[in-house]
């Protein structure tokens, strides 16, 4: 993946400012070092593809006279990049420097002099003290993803030495004097374009950035940047939108993200801060899509439970149900009244949800007769964890509160239904919710990115993921 880990997080993309992000990303010096290591592999391979053109000419050599010479079939046999560095330029971007590099070539030589005398052989050429310096510019392409290019590249060759195999010793002086400069110029002209190609080769990989990532059939999450990165001496901070939308319908929620700040931690390569705004935008999107509703029938209740969804069971608490609708099965409709509210406190994620519970008796002809409607207020605690490249979770019930909204069977004590509704929540609703939460939603990523040594902390108003990264292809 070359410098993908580095460049995607260094992107200086013109964006609108003034909008708080839902997600923040911090790339530390440790992450930059990993990006440098990946980049050197790519650049080394590019430099191995240098094609040095044949060099030929003629020169008067005393006392032999005019000598025609040529160097041909020059091939790179080795490239070494023992010293390199990536430096952050605060407020500007990134500078890549390579020093003390070397290139070894092998080729053939040929001379002709005194009209009829010819000689030939092979040679090994070593280029030492090679230095390369380039800045990396990033702009937004037509899809809103970053596109990279190399600018202000400079390459210099320290020294060139040639060892000839075959031929007379005077050949060395001839080639050293008149060919050294030609070889130096040929190499210097090749290096910067190849470095530029190595950077440009990243663009197909950068197009894999999940700026808009599908979660499921209801929702997708947007990770576009809301402002340019903040580049300091030790890190790069990115601000991403981090907002859930309904598939194909980008409707903004009736609330805005609050500002939050990542702590100055540097032990991991990467830190991702996911705000409560992101979680609440998910609740808004799913509620808007009508996905937060569930019909509950008796076959969802474990067979071992003495409580059944029948008019006989409910009639034990509300006698008029058993009298008016004897021996019928029942169905409950649980539907949220508004988007759930998610709050993050240190080591604690809480979700408050308001819903209506409508109870029906199922008539023999399958029509539904409404019995009552309850207001249900619930509080659940969530455990959040990273699974692969997704953020997942699971919830447990804290408490619930029931009040009567409408009754079609006369007055009754709502509290008498607490045990039934708690059972329904614990054995039917929450397990179904947890199945969906376990699937998780995608984190911002490019290509075959893998998170390793991942840790997650829940803090005030956001959760913090600290992780190292690997690219597997």
Automatic annotation (TrEMBL):
Pfam families in alphabetical order: LBP_BPI_CETP (PF01273), LBP_BPI_CETP_C (PF02886)
SUPFAM superfamilies in the record: Bactericidal permeability-increasing protein, BPI
Places the protein is found: Secreted
Domain Lipid-binding serum glycoprotein C-terminal: 264-467
Superkingdom field: Eukaryota
Predominant place of localization: secreted
Keyword Signal (UniProt): yes
Coiled coil, from the record: none
Annotated keywords: Antibiotic, Antimicrobial, Disulfide bond, Glycoprotein, Immunity, Innate immunity, Secreted, Signal
Disulfide pairings: 153-192
One GO MF term attached to the UniProt entry: lipid binding
Keyword Disulfide bond attributed: yes
Signal peptide, first to last residue: 1-18
One Gene Ontology CC term in the entry: extracellular space
Any one GO BP annotation for this protein: innate immune response
Domain Lipid-binding serum glycoprotein N-terminal: 26-249
Subunit relationships: Monomer. Homodimer; disulfide-linked.
Family according to the record: Belongs to the BPI/LBP/Plunc superfamily. BPI/LBP family.
Protein's job: The cytotoxic action of BPI is limited to many species of Gram-negative bacteria; this specificity may be explained by a strong affinity of the very basic N-terminal half for the negatively charged lipopolysaccharides that are unique to the Gram-negative bacterial outer envelope.
Notes on the domains: The N-terminal region may be exposed to the interior of the granule, whereas the C-terminal portion may be embedded in the membrane. During phagocytosis and degranulation, proteases may be released and activated and cleave BPI at the junction of the N- and C-terminal portions of the molecule, providing controlled release of the N-terminal antibacterial fragment when bacteria are ingested. The N- and C-terminal barrels adopt an identical fold despite having only 13% of conserved residues.
Protein name, as recorded: Bactericidal permeability-increasing protein
Encoding gene, per UniProt annotation: LOC118310107
